Amino acid sequence: CDAISICVPTPLSKTRDPDVSHVRAASEAVAAALRPGQLIVLESTTYPGTTREVMQPKLESTGLKAGEDFFLCFSPERVDPGNETWTTRNTPKVIGGLTDVCGDVGQSFYERFIDKVVRVSSVEAAELTKILENTFRAVNIGLVNEIALIADRLGVDIWEVINAAATKPFGFMKFMPGPGLGGHCIPVDPHYLSWKMRTLNYKTRFIDLASEINSEMPHFVRDKVCEVLNRNRQPLNGSSILLLGVAYKKDIDDVRESPALDVMNLLQQKGAEVKYHDPYVSMLSGESATLTSEKLTDELFSWADVVVILTDHSDFDYARILE
């Protein structure tokens, strides 16, 4: 083949540091078959410097030189799972080359099947672009989550406040609070940037604070469940809790980094019996057990002491749930 696109997982280690082992392994596999004239593009979200510091040395260990014998670029994957409006073709594609020639070749490749290609000056600029996109979301979700905590203390309806603020036609972007961050990008990518900056003796205070707030939201959900039970003089220990939706976002089946896992584990740790229903997720593995999605029946609703909506799937009959 003339072009190779690498899009492998870039998770976090147990210490919440970047794990680029899959990128290294993919680079080694490509190097084993690398030939002159090939285009190699990394699409995995990662910290600035990965393409140059991790991939280039492994590929050039073959004796071939990037920018002369082969072409190396970074072009972040931007697909939004479940989004039928913005597809691979019509979502603008950012690309940066290790050299200008690399960038030219990479841009020409993507322009064959992408409506708009956005060229940046370097692989580091392209890497940081994707990190900025996802960190922007994580920080703003952290902000609106903290406002939700504030509104709760003040006895104010946060949804009313957000909808009112969103009527301003400029200077405000609507973000919604939730039980935490989920998915393989938004909860992970800010940690890649924080780690990189720590190696440069810089602390990303704002980013780290947003991550801390988002990580606390499952605890807030558990505490709200306790609050509801306490009104009826019922302890969480021994109570029956039904979770509706466990995917990390609506109308998909992906549970990676889903805050529903933390909510389930926190409730079970306090002795609650937890069941869930999700039309897209048939099984869910927690710390103490693997659960199977329950069929929504009147008996299930009668069983539950508290019903918690974690993911707002379009399939849910909210009128029935409220009954």
Plain-language structure description:
It is a single chain. The protein is an alpha/beta fold and 323 residues long. The chain has three domains: 3-122, 3-Layer(aba) Sandwich (Rossmann fold); 129-206, N-(1-d-carboxylethyl)-l-norvaline Dehydrogenase, domain 2, CATH 1.10.1040; 234-322, Rossmann fold, CATH 3.40.50. The chain is built from ten helices and ten strands. The strands form three sheets. Strands 1-2-3-4-5 form a five-stranded mixed β-sheet, sandwiched between helices. A three-stranded parallel β-sheet has the order 7-6-10. The protein is elongated and about 75 Å long. 34% of the residues are buried. GO terms for molecular function: NAD binding; oxidoreductase activity, acting on the CH-CH group of donors, NAD or NADP as acceptor; oxidoreductase activity, acting on the CH-OH group of donors, NAD or NADP as acceptor. Keywords: NAD, Oxidoreductase. This is UDP-glucose/GDP-mannose dehydrogenase C-terminal domain-containing protein.
The count of strands amounts to 10
- Strand fraction band? 5-15%
Shape by Cα distribution: elongated
| Major sheet characteristics | 5 strands, mixed
